[in-house]
Fold this sequence. Notes:
The chain is α/β, with parallel strands linked by helices. It has 2 domains: 91 residues, 3-Layer(aba) Sandwich (Rossmann fold), CATH 3.40.50.20; 107 residues, Hexapeptide repeat proteins (UDP N-Acetylglucosamine Acyltransferase, domain 1), CATH 2.160.10.10. Helix content is 14%, strand content 25%. The chain contains 3 helices and 21 strands. The strands form 4 sheets. A 7-stranded parallel β-sheet has the order 6-7-10-13-16-19-21, covered by helices on one side. The N and C termini lie far apart (54 Å). The relative contact order is 0.10.
Amino acid sequence: MKDLVIFGTGMMAELADYYFRTDYGVNVVGFTVDAAYKSSDRWLDRPLIAWDEIQSRFPPSRHDLFVAVGYAGLNKVRRAKVDEAEAKGYALTRYISPRAIVPENFESSANQFIFENAIIQPFTKIGRNVVLWPGSLVAHHCEVGEDVVISGKAAIAGRVRIGARCFVGLNATIRDNVRIGEDCIIGAGAVILRDLPNGSIAAAGGTRISKAPSHRLRRF
């Protein structure tokens, strides 16, 4: 594997640096961000290079790249950098935790990040630039579109189709045979029992505070 450059200086970039080095033994040689967000020349004790200078400092012939930014704009910011990186000639790597459960013949795609204890069952397709956080389940015969984020402990039942640029929150559940349109946001703890059209927002009921204080409970 080539040396690696990571786009980003946030929490996702810090996690990517840790996992690539710890689990894969990759030499992460530096980081890059847009010039407007570059406030120093180093980050995590390695060079921090402006994005428009990256090819001269870390040429794509000798370096791979991973885009590690958050879910801003329904993941469109992250996807824009993926497209720019490929236009600059970089091969985009991917991370699949050795502690994830994936089928033997799973076909990974560019800029995927699959955390520990994520489960992908057989006959499932996961698109480019998808993030599966720890403990998430994508069951058999599912199709997950590009640029999707599935949060920890979310459970996607069999034969579900999730469109591009969707966000699935913590502990959300999607029942089998459901179709989720593009650009949907499914909130933490939401239970999805039917199809959602493009651009839907589905949220679980908010936390309700009882009028009775906790010390009045006889049992807990």
